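Student: Please help interpret what follows.
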Amino acid sequence: LLVDLLSKTSGLEAKYIIRTILGTLRLGVGEMIFLYGLSKAFGGDKKGKETLEYAFNVLSDLGEVAYAVSKMGIKKIAEIKPKVGVPIRMMAANRVEELKDVKKHIVGEVSVEDKYDGERIQAHISIKCQVPSVKCQEIILFSRRQENITHQYPDIIEGLKKSFRGKEAIIEGEVVAYDEEKNRMLPFQVLMSRRRKHGIEEYVKKIPTRYFLFDLLYLDGKNFLKKSLKERRAALEKVFRRLKPIEFGRYAVTDDLSEIESYFSEALKRGAEGVMIKDYSGIYKAGTRGWLWIKFKKEYRKELADTFDLVVVGALYGTGRRAKTYGSLLAAAYDPKENKYYSFTKVGTGLTDATLAKLPKMFEKYKLSEKHKLVETGMKVDVWFEPKIVMEVSGAEITVSPVHVVAKDKIKKGGLALRFPKFLRWRPDKSAENATTVEEIYELYPHTKRG
């Protein structure tokens, strides 16, 4: 059918037919622009954009949203429920520089939870036959990037089948690699070795996991997105049993700042990378990054600092022993409001010889002849990339730069930049849109220096 179609088209038409099929149109048009367009088309103005954004975050498909609003109208689309098997865009957290700043954003009780160094997974569970049994359950696992990664975690699938006591549900949790003998969590890099197409059963035995459940979004026909965290957790703990490798995420409920600080210290001792602090009465805002959730990874040893998930948008050729590869990478933060990437730092430190050797092949399919239209920077590089690959970077401090452009509209003397950056690891579990935001970085920059 495809060959027949292409034989009837011009070269230019064939080009865009293939790009459409592969999902690589590279138009540089953000999702929000489409939602504004739908709001204007079916509502007469842009006021319906927020409602359409809710529908998009639940359905994760602009085509589905367009079809739904054309049939139902904007008012009815606000009643859309999650569908088992259709990934919901995950809620994200903001960050604070000091724990005392939590009170500026959340009033009342919070849930303080361990922040695990693993892979966030959304599980969709459905019983397909009338007589409930393990055999008739269907379970799909989605990554943060909404990829179907069910085949990678057969141990988690079996655990969920035995643990779940309802008919259908959508839940979220964090999968971590786990050392059963020493009863401790293992680093993220160990878990990523489970990401493979072959030899999965061997690695299930080699690298056991634990799935720490922390949220419930949908249960037996009921939409839990607009219910409080307190209600969501109560329902979660009612319909799931703690049964290896299924666990509930550790947490404490309090409104006392000193208790939050104590919990944070204990979480670090347990091997967590920090804490998540969540509004206990807050709803689940799919696809958004707000102050209902706050993450805190404070410097707890002198050599460790808070980290940033940045998008690689360009590179400089190396010299000396790096002559056959890239010597440093230009990294950017994301602004979801503008749908643009603003350069934040140039990273060369921390890249091992093995990592450097892989860079040309790793970035080959993302190479561009000129700067991507969504990228903003004052820096010149040798090679430009499509903003796709995310890496985690540490640094000494945030400073003002004449070439980097994060928050340049808010800082008088230039944009914000990261000093002494160091590459830590790749983040294949995160898409470019999940990168650290411009607003997050601006909030971390001291108020006294903003000028």
Notes: The first strand starts at residue 92 and ends at 95. The CA atoms of residues 395 and 421 lie 4 Å apart. The two ends are 62 Å apart (CA to CA).
